[in-house]
Design goal:
- The chain is mainly beta.
- The chain has no helices and nine strands.
- The chain has a domain of 98 residues: Immunoglobulins (Immunoglobulin-like, Sandwich).
- The strands form three sheets. It has a four-stranded antiparallel beta sheet, with no helix packed on it.
- The two termini are 35 Å apart.
């Protein structure tokens, strides 16, 4: 499913009364991407502490292995942040909060990505507008 994002379903049916009557059909199904949500919490002010909350729920009837969430955006984070979870059980919800301090003012897009052995490149984003601070500029903190 990861490579083509589709599943080919084939069915072969034989008529019980007429054994020479065979019916074949194929269909490509494109499953919906699982839901990933992100929101920014806190004062949208330059150099003020904020938190990104990312939520993903396993839609499959099996566990997801080697899961990780990434968080990126230029001007909000000095580097890509990552949270890992080795196993996400069937129907289990993963909620991750990641603190950050925006260092550049203006409109920004916070982007979260989810990957695991079964899914790749599930994305979500939210827009924030970081207001500039006037006066003294505090030093940049790293998490």
């Amino acid at each position: 499913m990861r490579e083509s994002n589709s599943i080919k379903v084939s069915a072969v049916v034989t008529d019980k009364d007429k054994s020479e009557a065979v019916y074949i059909t194929e269909k490509d199904l494109v499953p919906e991407s699982p839901s990933l949500t992100i929101k920014a919490i806190g004062s949208e002010l330059q150099y003020s502490d904020m938190t990104a909350e990312v939520v993903f729920e396993n839609p499959l009837s099996e566990g997801l292995r080697n899961c990780f969430i990434t968080l990126t955006v230029s001007g909000l984070l000095t580097e890509t942040m990552e949270a890992r979870m080795p196993l996400l059980k069937q129907g289990q919800r993963l909620r991750v909060t990641m603190p950050f301090t925006p260092y550049r003012p203006g409109p920004k897009k916070l982007v979260a990505g989810f990957n695991c052995d079964q899914f790749r490149d599930i994305k979500a984003s939210c827009n924030v507008y970081i207001k500039p601070v006037t006066g003294v500029v505090p030093p940049l903190r790293r998490y």
